[in-house]
Amino acid sequence: MTDTLDPLLRDLIAFVAEPRPYAEVLDAWRTSCPRLPVWEEAVARGLVAHGRRNGVAVVRATPAGRVWSCSQGPGA
């Protein structure tokens, strides 16, 4: 599954490189496929985090997520 998941994780990290509203992220990244748990895997690995900014729930790439994403390189 890593072959399938890692490119999607890189895409998600790039998507939230600048904090985005939580609702926007979930709308863009939700899936009903239990075999592609991109959001869950990213949170479990500590690659993305969610919190509040100015009273709005947001999602952002963590420093660890940025490092991991860069270490994977494009098309890795």
**Outline:** globular
Low-confidence stretches: none
Task: Give the CA-CA distance, first to last residue.
Answer: 14 Å
CATH superfamily: Winged helix-like DNA-binding domain superfamily/Winged helix DNA-binding domain
According to CATH, what is the class?
Answer: Mainly Alpha
The chain-level mean pLDDT equals 86
Beta content comes to: 15-25%
The major sheet is characterized as: 3 strands, antiparallel
Query: What integer value in Å does the Rg equal?
Result: 12 Å
How many helices does DSSP assign?
4
Stated plainly, the CATH topology is called Arc Repressor Mutant, subunit A
Share in helix? 40-55%
- Side by side, the strands of the main sheet go 1-3-2
CATH architecture: Orthogonal Bundle
Note the run of SSEs as H and E. HEHHEEH
Total strands: 3
Integer count of domains = 1
Query: What structural class do helix, strand and pairing data support?
Result: alpha+beta
Structure summarized in a few sentences:
By secondary structure, this protein is α+β, with helices and mostly antiparallel strands.
Describe the structure.
This protein has 76 residues and is of the alpha+beta class. The chain has one domain: Arc Repressor Mutant, subunit A (Orthogonal Bundle). Helix content is 51%, strand content 18%. It is built from four helices and three strands; from the N terminus they run H-E-H-H-E-E-H. It has a three-stranded antiparallel β-sheet. Helix 1 crosses helix 3 and helix 1 (2-15) packs across helix 4. 18% of the residues are buried.
